[in-house]
Amino acid sequence: MPDTALDQRYSDDHATAVPWEVTQEELATAGVYWLSTVRPDGRPHVTPLIGVWLDDALLFCTGSQERKARNLAANPEVAVTTGANALHAGLDVVVEGPAVVLRDEPSLTRAAAAWLAKYGEEWRFEVRDGRFHHASGAGVADVYRVAPAAVFAFGKDPYSQTRYAF
């Protein structure tokens, strides 16, 4: 369990810290995440993607020649966000930490099963040579694991900012 703290500076007077279990559920059930990386020249790069929350980490995949993979090769630190696109309802979550390529085939097999369970047949992957191979033959991808260094949950009714430290 992470250390959990409500930041009262950014929270309503009657707000309480969002329980970690609630934040984990948001991470597990989100359909789309936004990955922020840094280009080699220092400019930000943000892209939507799909992923799974598995074994206390966020997993996503990308081809080795895509911009995000090239950015990660130079700087593995990322922020991944998800949440509700509403001002007065829902929970927004930010995960910060290094994105590390996952090559362990038993872990990748579990990850492929999680992708299939969450997103259906469109996202069926076969695991070979430490990578995801799209079942349709459409491509090969590396899987990245982001074990959080910190997670932030932003509640909106009431407004709150909860920080989880790992």
Automatic annotation (TrEMBL):
Gene3D superfamilies listed in its UniProt record: Electron Transport, Fmn-binding Protein, Chain A
Annotated ranges, domain Pyridoxamine 5'-phosphate oxidase N-terminal: 23-136
Keywords for the protein's UniProt record, in alphabetical order: Oxidoreductase
Record bears the keyword Cytoplasm: no
A Pfam family it matches: PNPOx_N
Protein name: Pyridoxamine 5'-phosphate oxidase family protein
Organism: Dactylosporangium fulvum
